[in-house]
Amino acid sequence: MDKAIIIPMILALTEIVKRFGISSKYAPLVSIVLGVGISFLTSVSINSALEGVVFGLSASGLWSGGKTIISK
Asked: Taking the domains of the chain in order of start, what are their residue ranges?
């Protein structure tokens, strides 16, 4: 899997989870869990877990930053 698609995929999946009723305050945690889960699907190692955390944090930061820019 190309790693460039993972962050937008996490953004989309997190938005879907939020629409099913999960509070927005848990969105960063959901992003991290999804990032780790998706990374483990590609390869199971400690590096995958760390990459997943980075992907999840990147996705939640991208969402937060984009929301801030749009609201101003």
From this structure: 24-72
Give the integer Cα–Cα distance in Å for 42 and 19: 27
pLDDT tens digits, residue range 30-63?
A: 999 999 999 888 877 778 888 888 888 888 887 7
CB atoms within 10 A of CB 60: 21
| C-alpha distances out from residue 59 to 34, 51, 55, Å | 10, 12, 6
Q: Please name the residue that has the structure tokens 């190692």.
A: 45
Global pTM exceeds 0.85: no
Note the maximum CA span of the chain.
41
